Automatic annotation (TrEMBL):
It comes from the Bacteria. This is Pyridoxal phosphate homeostasis protein. It comes from Malaciobacter molluscorum LMG 25693. Belongs to the pyridoxal phosphate-binding protein YggS/PROSC family. The keyword Isomerase does not apply. HAMAP family: PLP_homeostasis (MF_02087). The modification N6-(pyridoxal phosphate)lysine is found at residue 37. PANTHER family: PROLINE SYNTHETASE CO-TRANSCRIBED BACTERIAL HOMOLOG PROTEIN, PYRIDOXAL PHOSPHATE HOMEOSTASIS PROTEIN. Keywords: Coiled coil, Pyridoxal phosphate. Pfam families: Ala_racemase_N.
Length: 225
């Protein structure tokens, strides 16, 4: 990726984020995570030089490779993919800044057990399947608060920091907006319990997500195009 292209892409996204967040409040800060799953370590390096610091991957193996390629850079790494149980130990060893895709109580219990054995902790977001789509994992919105509390109470090595959701996979903006509002309402209920991040919004819908209260967006294709 050309340096000028990286600068232009990042500038454009920052301007769009500014525009959307200021419609909510000048105090509403949005963190941008660059999702680099379809891109090379060189592309990430260009965006890093342009000023982007946080990146996310959806496969443990790819995260490991890119962290190793770019180990001299103080990048903040996120994990956003489905975590297979046989990859849990590998992910723990990589110490991501934030694991955003904790998608069931079962996975939480398994992760907690392995964290305990290694005397480690991990910052996580609870993934919510807010549009109740079969193609997505995540807890059902009506169960989310209860499961969040249960993980907080029974999995001491998991540090829950909020929620993550993928917007409804449809054309109709009203339906996408409804899915974001569902996640936002759950986040509001969880803020008294310490939830800090409401991660929602991708390349196609991050402006809408921010208007619905997202404070963390995950952008891939529009950042790396
Ligand atoms: C790929 C991915 C993204 C980024 O998607 P784009 O549409 O390319 O912005 C965000 N979140 C998750 C969980 C992803 O897997």
């Amino acid at each position: 990726m050309q340096m000028q292209k990286a600068i232009d892409n990042l500038d454009r996204i920052i301007a769009d984020v500014e525009d959307a967040r200021l419609q909510l409040s000048g105090h509403h800060i949005v963190k941008i995570i660059g999702i680099s799953k379809y891109n090379t370590s060189d592309d990430i390096n260009s965006l890093y030089k342009a000023g982007q610091r946080a990146f996310g991957e959806n496969k443990v193996q790819d995260l490991k490779q890119k962290m190793s390629d770019l180990e001299e850079l103080p990048i903040e790494w996120h994990f956003v993919g489905r975590l297979q149980k046989n990859k849990i130990n590998n992910l723990i060893d990589l110490k991501p800044t934030l694991m955003q895709s904790l998608d069931s109580l079962d996975l939480a219990e398994e992760l907690n057990k392995k964290l305990e054995a290694k005397q480690k902790t991990m910052n996580c977001l609870l993934q919510i399947n807010s549009a109740k789509e079969d193609s997505k994992t995540g807890v059902m919105p009506e169960d989310a608060v209860e499961i969040y509390k249960q993980i907080s109470n029974t999995c001491p090595n998991i540090k829950l920091k909020g929620v993550m959701s993928i917007g409804a996979h449809v054309e109709d903006e009203d339906i996408i907006e409804a899915s974001f509002k569902t996640t936002r309402a759950i986040f509001d209920e969880l803020q008294p319990l310490g939830a800090k991040y409401c991660s929602m919004g991708m390349s196609s819908d991050f402006k809408l997500a921010i208007k619905c209260g997202s404070n963390m967006i995950r952008v891939g294709s529009t950042l790396f195009k």
